[in-house]
């Protein structure tokens, strides 16, 4: 209690004080309601507003693409963003501050799961209406969610455990091919495996099982790396995992029965938004549970001083192998989803470029942090989509940003934090008023 | 019966004989000290006992169980706790997390429990949290519980390391220079703490120490190690007056 009081009396100045005055004291649920409202406005009035602002159609990705292609549309796009997103979100969030705080306080009393389901439901609703306007948005959103899973799972290895693993695209490929083989074999009529063995209606129910199978295959692959490379510490894992990535890639390229270099296509459309969203939420929840438990904290102990961990009764070898397989499992699941989002996979999509992307996300967002992984994955994916019109120059801007982050925050934007859903959903008092 | 018993332990690093024919009998409730000049092999003996190195020859028994060939974490969970000369703390972990981590082998939930946050997992976490807080209070470090361990003052870090070692439920505690780098004031406090640990937790203590005052105060028996061999063993008074010990520390008296 005392701590809170001292915080209240701290005078704040400048931009932060202004920001605090403008948007302070609004709980998460208030923001979610506001976003939901803004998305509804766009859903019903978006066409009208963009017509009056002289835009050819609704700006798909916050107007980045429109402006980069036709700079003259800048005023219209800015106006659209203000009218549809910024103003409504601010107005709704501010006007709902009191009821939202009451609601948050009410939810805070109940179990965390109920509050989490309500928050997630609201968020999903907003995403549903937002993506309903354009298929491109849907695709970007799904790929972003998959990127979150990949980033989080590599963070377990590179951040929490402090080893440098380069084989994530390989695990992703194992998962993608594993899950695709199962769904194509059982539920689809395709060139490679012939007619479906089971009725197609069952497919969507079996899809989670196919994903898990893909994840397990990836975890097995991880075990193959882990056994020789965890005997010692150092750069060995980086080298072995990098070679594993290339082994997997050339293995798939040379196996004709799964398509060889031509890849696999016509996967059934099972990775719909609810599926991807649910799997992502599960992934975040499970990984967060793990890294917050003492069993998961053992990873940090191994990273910071393995000898001390061992002498303090931690079975370091088992811990490392489990964490590595765990990270690989989720990469495999993400790969399975990825294959069914694009409905086409080939070995080329799991190369060194994908690795660079994943590593950029995790080091940009922040090591040893669930929030950081989410921030990193979302910002790099959205940025790389938004800068698409710049073509090759995109790969100058994003690395520059990374360098800046590394200069000022060597561990990434949000590193070494704990992600606590209960804290996140708490009601907030407005501190400015009490001064 | 001896709690910790070492018979004829010899260890070679390549061609270098680091420890030769070392014997130790540690009775329950005793405090034994190990002194010797730098490079005598004291820390090597600790590393051999705690399984970090495996002795070339010889036998180690803890409470009747053979320790040879077990991994360090197994030996630690069998009841051999230790601290380090140069404080091996975990850089990014809080004080409370340090002590909880040492309860790792006592956790009664599996990996799946940790993944899904099972009820048992929460219960166990709560149990070891209260155990850790209790230990921190004993070592007068509870006020730091949510701080990063590396940000603590040196004395508090030493106390934290003791608390962490005690969280493994040791029967025998190995202390590797518990007073290294301490002021005389802190030294006296450390003596009180070790006495307290000895009484409250009923552990046998085996310690390496350079400061003779400290060893003479605490230990019932002292071994002197020179070049990997025990040259004298006895009560503090015997050791103080032993000509071999004096020679090892101060050099030979010139008789002309």
Describe this structure in words.
The complex is a heterodimer of chains A (435) and B (256). Chain A has 435 residues and is mainly alpha-helical. Chain A folds into two domains: 25-94, no CATH class; 134-422, Orthogonal Bundle (ABC transporter involved in vitamin B12 uptake, BtuC). Chain A has helices spanning 2-9, 14-23, 28-52, 64-69, 74-95, 97-109, 112-132, 135-160, 168-187, 203-229, 236-254, 273-292, 294-304, 306-311, 316-342, 352-365, 370-386, 394-408, 421-424; strands at 264-265, 344-345. Chain A has a two-stranded antiparallel ribbon. Chain A is globular, with a radius of gyration of 23 Å. In chain A, 40% of the residues are buried. Chain B is of the alpha/beta class and 256 residues long. Chain B has two domains: 1-79 and 170-256, P-loop containing nucleotide triphosphate hydrolases (Rossmann fold, 3-Layer(aba) Sandwich), CATH 3.40.50; 91-164, no CATH class. Helix content of chain B is 38%, strand content 23%. Chain B has helices at 42-49, 72-77, 95-101, 111-116, 119-138, 154-166, 184-200, 212-218, 236-241, 243-250; strands at residues 4-13, 16-26, 31-35, 57-62, 65-66, 80-82, 172-176, 204-208, 221-226, 229-234. In chain B, the strands form two sheets. A six-stranded mixed sheet of chain B has the order 6-7-8-3-9-10, with helices on both faces. Chain B starts with a strand and ends in a 6-residue tail after the last helix. At the A-B interface, α12, α13, α14 and α15 of A face α2, α3, α4 and α5 of B.
Keywords:
heterodimer, A: 435 residues, mainly alpha, ABC transporter involved in vitamin B12 uptake, BtuC, 2 domains, two-stranded antiparallel sheet, 19 helices, 2 strands, 71% helix, disordered N terminus, B: 256 residues, alpha/beta, Rossmann fold, six-stranded mixed sheet, four-stranded antiparallel sheet, 10 helices, 38% helix, 23% strand
């Amino acid at each position: 209690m005392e701590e809170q009081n001292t915080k209240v009396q701290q005078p704040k100045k400048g931009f932060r004080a202004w920001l605090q005055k403008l948007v302070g004291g609004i709980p998460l649920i208030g923001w979610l309601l506001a976003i939901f409202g803004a998305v509804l406005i766009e859903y019903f009035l978006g066409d009208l507003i963009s017509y009056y602002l002289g835009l050819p159609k609704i700006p798909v990705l916050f107007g980045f693409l429109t402006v980069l292609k036709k700079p003259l549309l800048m005023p219209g796009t800015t106006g659209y963003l203000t009218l549809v997103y910024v103003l409504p979100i601010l107005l709704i969030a501010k006007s709902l501050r009191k009821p939202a705080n009451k609601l948050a306080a009410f939810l805070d009393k109940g179990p965390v799961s109920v509050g989490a389901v309500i928050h997630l439901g609201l968020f999903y609703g907003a995403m549903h209406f937002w993506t309903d306007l354009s298929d491109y948005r849907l695709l970007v959103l799904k790929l972003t969610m998959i990127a979150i899973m990949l980033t989080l799972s590599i963070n377990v290895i590179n951040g929490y455990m402090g080893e440098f693993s380069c084989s994530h695209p390989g695990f992703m490929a194992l998962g993608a091919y594993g899950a695709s083989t199962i769904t194509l074999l059982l539920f689809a009529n395709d060139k490679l495996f012939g007619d479906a063995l089971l009725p197609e209606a069952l497919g969507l129910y079996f899809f989670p099982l196919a994903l898990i199978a893909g994840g397990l295959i990836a975890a097995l692959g991880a075990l193959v790396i882990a056994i020789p490379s965890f005997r010692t510490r150092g750069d060995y894992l980086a080298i072995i995992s990098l070679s594993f990535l290339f082994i997997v890639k050339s293995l798939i390229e040379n196996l004709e029965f799964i398509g060889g270099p031509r890849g696999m296509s016509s996967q059934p459309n099972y990775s719909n938004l609810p599926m991807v969203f649910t799997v992502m939420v599960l992934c975040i929840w499970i990984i967060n549970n793990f890294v917050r438990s003492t069993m998961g904290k053992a990873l940090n102990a191994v990273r910071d001083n393995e000898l001390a961990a061992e002498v303090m009764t931690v079975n370091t070898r088992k811990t490392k192998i489990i964490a590595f397989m765990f990270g690989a499992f989720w990469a495999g699941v993400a790969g399975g989803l990825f294959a069914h989002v694009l409905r086409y996979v080939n070995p080329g999509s799991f190369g060194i470029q994908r690795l660079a992307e994943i590593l950029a996300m995790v080091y940009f967002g922040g090591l040893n942090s669930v929030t950081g992984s989410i921030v990193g994955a979302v910002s790099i994916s959205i940025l790389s989509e938004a800068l698409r019109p710049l073509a090759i120059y995109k790969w100058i801007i994003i690395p520059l940003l990374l360098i800046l982050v590394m200069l000022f925050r060597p561990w990434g934007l949000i590193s070494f934090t704990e992600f606590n859903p209960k804290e996140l959903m708490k009601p907030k008092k407005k501190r400015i008023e009490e001064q | 019966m001896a709690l910790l018993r070492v018979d004829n332990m010899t260890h070679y690093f390549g061609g270098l004989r680091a420890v030769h024919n070392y014997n130790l009998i540690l009775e329950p409730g005793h405090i034994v000290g190990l002194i010797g000049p730098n490079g005598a092999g004291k820390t090597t003996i600790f590393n051999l006992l705690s399984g970090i190195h495996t002795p070339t020859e010889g036998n180690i028994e803890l409470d009747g169980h053979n320790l040879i060939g077990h991994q360090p974490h197994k030996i630690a969970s069998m009841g051999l706790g230790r601290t380090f000369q140069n404080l091996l703390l975990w850089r990014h972990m809080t004080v409370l997390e340090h002590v909880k981590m040492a309860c790792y082998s006592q956790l009664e939930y599996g990996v799946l429990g940790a993944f899904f946050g099972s009820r048992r997992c929460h219960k166990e976490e709560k149990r070891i949290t209260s155990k850790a807080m209790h230990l921190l209070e004993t070592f007068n470090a509870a006020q730091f519980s949510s701080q990063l361990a590396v940000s603590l003052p040196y004395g508090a870090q030493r106390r934290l390391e003791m608390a962490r070692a005690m969280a493994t439920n040791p029967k025998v505690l190995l202390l590797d220079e518990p007073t290294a780098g301490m002021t005389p004031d802190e030294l006296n406090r450390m003596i009180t703490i070790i006495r307290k640990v000895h009484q409250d937790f009923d552990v046998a203590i085996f310690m390496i120490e350079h400061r003779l005052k400290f060893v003479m105060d605490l230990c019932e028996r002292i071994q002197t190690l020179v070049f990997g061999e025990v040259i004298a063993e006895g009560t503090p008074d015997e050791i103080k007056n032993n000509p071999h010990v004096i020679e090892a520390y101060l050099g030979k008296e010139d008789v002309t």
